[in-house]
Amino acid sequence: MKWVLLILIVCYAVPLHGLTKIVSARPKAVNIGAVFTFNSLIGKVIKVAMDAAVEDVNASPSILNTTTLKIIMHDTKFNGFMSIMEPLHFMESETVAIIGPQRSTTARVVAHVATELRVPILSFSATDPTMSPLQFPFFIRTAHNDLFQMAAIADIVQFYGWREVVAIYGDDDYGRNGVASLGDRLAEKRCRISYKAALPPGPTRENITDLLIKVALSESRIIVIHASFIWGLELFNVAQNLGMMSTGYVWIATNWLSTIIDTDSPLPLDTINNIQGVIALRPHTPNSIMKQNFIQRWHNLTHVGLSTYGLYAYDTVWLLAQAIDDFFQKGGNVSFSKNPILSELVGGNLHLDALKVFDGGKMFLESILQVDRIGLTGRMKFTRDRNLVNPEFDVLNVIGTGYRTIGYWSNHLGLSVVPADERQNTSFSGQKLHSVVWPGQTTKVPRGWVFSNNGRHLRIGVPNRYRSEEVVSVKSNGMITGFCVDVFTAALNLLPYAVPFELVAFGNGHDNPSNSELVRLITTGVYDAGVGDITIITERTKMADFTQPYVESGLVVVAPVRKLGSSAMAFLRPFTPQMWLITAASFLIVGAVIWCLEHKHNDEFRGPPCRQFITTFWFSFSTLFFSHRETTTSSLGKIVLIIWLFVVLIINSSYTASLTSILTVHQLSSPIKGIETLQANHDPIGYPKGSFVRDYLVHELNIHESRLVPLSSPEEYDKALRDGPGKGGVAAVVDERAYIELFLSNRCISA
Questions:
Q1: Which residue, 285, 302, 363, 375, is CA-closest to 328?
Q2: Which of 259, 402, 453, 496 is 20 to 30 A from 84, comparing alpha carbons?
Q3: Which among 371, 339, 366 is positioned nearest to 352, based on CA atoms?
Q4: Where is the Ionotropic glutamate receptor C-terminal domain (predicted)?
Q5: 232-241 and 205-216 are packed helices; what angle lies between their axes, rounded to 10 degrees?
Q6: SS3 helix, strand, coil % of the chain, rounded to 5?
Q7: pTM of the shown model
């Protein structure tokens, strides 16, 4: 019996031990940390939201089973140093993830440490677009990247036809990188930031006043504010005192302003008066029953208004809970170990050796990135570059004591008056935005710019060519005249305001400059515009905008011609040799057909063979002058004869008209019939030096570049065409119609 009992104990010991190990894989509680400033505008909201989320997670039977989710919050008290140190305290304990820090500047530092210790960092307020997953693999942004917010602003600027904006921002990583993204997005729309106005991270009222005075002296009246919650409203107060919230100005604020409105609503009357007419963005959260229930519940939790940060905080906690549940289902275990690198620092006063590595950090990170759930903010799912799917923003217009939603922006559909999630169920009219009440209580879209009091004149680039002085001519004294300049001046005279400008010659006057290079210099800011004979081609339209063409364009071929004089054989010139042969053969064939149809019944076509042959030949050619005497008796013969006489009439008329023209009008002839002739032969072709014609002939018409001869002036055109291919000249010149018409107006090229 003792041996039996011993065997039973050994047999059942292994499975019981394995069962114990499986149960212990799910701890009774899992800790997550949160680092933010409790009394900040965001902190007042997200603290309540995360507490509510933890309560709901622990009350839900569908997630975490017997494991309790605990969140430990640390107050950073508006201190950047505390924002770095508090996450390190969490990394000394068994904390599987950290929510925060609140600012992008400190999140960048903490993310480096988190990568080393394999502890995921989740933040919905650190939206710096330069924090990439390649550099910070354990940093996860659970709100939309600022890159999309800047793309929305760029679309708004393009929609209203503005071209330049002024960007005001805080001089830190968050501000600089956000404005850099705005510049990139504006460049894609052929717009730009004309003035980057940076403020110190904690600006005084004097700093703000000095900066806004500089902004007021600039030309652009489109002002984008990528501000902090701390000094954003102060900036509007100063702008109101400086008269910059009046008609003509446009103010576009990123989501910081909408957060203030949602959190502290209703705002004081003075504050709301300072922001009248401002356009603001807010992350779009679709309407749902879940969201409506949470909003009703929110009023019972706190008196603070619910902003989108509260919704993202709630969803972030649920996202972590679902990821933890998935982590445990995959066999993950919450365990920590010493970092061998930090172990070498034992004995220091900082006790850095106490920082622990999360052994299951990589598996937990994968579980977070694989979450796909519907939350208060919509679908929570990450793309390959770790951005949330379907970025969308509300476009708000501050009016009266509140605001009005004038439209929506989504990454895939752009601006619209209908949210992207409702377009499938709503007839979409194609309207981009509703009407806006701008600063100064006007609904008229501002022009967006003024002439600066201390601004420079517009620099207008004019191609300085060595040809066609009638189009553009740069005199020796620097004066620029010509047809294009006259058109430009006439257009300016139609404007209701004066435009100060200066014409600047582009080129040395000896070599024809590249118009494509002139257009490129406009995009780089060397010139503000270009005036001259600049042809509109696809490559150039990608770099700059063009007016409507005021001169007929298109490529033409000019070639030398030869005069054809009269001679004794001029009567043969109306028809080509082939035509003469065909006509003669037709006479013989028709005579043979008539003979076949008539000789059996008609005595006039009978007799000896020689007589029949002469009769047929004579009958056929006598029809040319309608002098045939033989009659046709058969019906088929009469039909053939009628048709033939009609053909003869046409031949006679054509011959007579052509011969009359040859004898009375000078005839010109050229071996070049068009561009097809030039493609078929191997003769040299002239083209204007520095023109797009060369690339067109080479890349579009597949003409070998060795055949192309650059010509700089009308005189070179004349000489090359007169010399011809045999004397080092060209067979033809390909150029634009306007230049060729000017060239032929006082020249006649004949060989």
A1: 363
A2: 259
A3: 339
A4: 459-750
A5: 60
A6: 45, 20, 40
A7: 0.71
